[in-house]
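Suppose you are handed a protein chain with no further information: no name, no annotation, nothing but its sequence. What can you learn? This example shows the usual starting point.
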Amino acid sequence: MRARRPPPGRSDGQATRARIVAAAERLFAARGIDDVSLQEINRAARQRNRSAVQYHFGTKQGLIHAILDKHTPGIARRRRDALERLDARGRRDLRRLAEILVLPAAEKLDDPDGGVAFLRVNAQLVGHPELSLLDLHARRENPEAEALQRLTARACPHLPEPLWLPRWLLVTGLLFHGLADYARLAGRRPRALALPSREIFVSSLVDSVVALLEAPPSGQTRARLPGGPAERGA
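A reasonable first move is to predict its three-dimensional structure. Written in structure tokens, the prediction is:
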């Protein structure tokens, strides 16, 4: 008895979506999210129907969500597995938490199916005025990322609550800009710049995340916190 094939329309639709997403992440990474039109993506994906992108994804934001849907589940699984091992061992030091944040994302440097493009798109989203990376992720269910943030915050008791989000914003920017810039420079292989090996760069990136989170707030910053002397006009 022959195995039943999936309905042609369904498989064709999935293949079309995959081609559009691949074209979008490639163009966004190369030229910037704001400088690429949906029609250009449609042409790059070789779609005869001029409305194919809108039909499958609606808007540019829908396409960005699709790019995240393509890559973030694998990162989330790696982080979940690492967090489970962390709980089993009972070690929740800041260095290990930083590794759980950085290493699964760094693996995208070796993903031939748009991994580097994904990093570049996320680097753009970090400071995007309308498509904030944190806002986009906040609208999505990602328990692994939420658990990692909670554990990292607990590992930083020296940071007053009003300073936690600003530090996490800086960590997010460092993570994606660092990986995207490394990929760009490694691809060009500039002679005047001696790049470290991948292993050294990623380990140094973890060091930088730890240093950023461990840095105590200065007296000047504490003075400007709610209830501090600067706020009271002292």
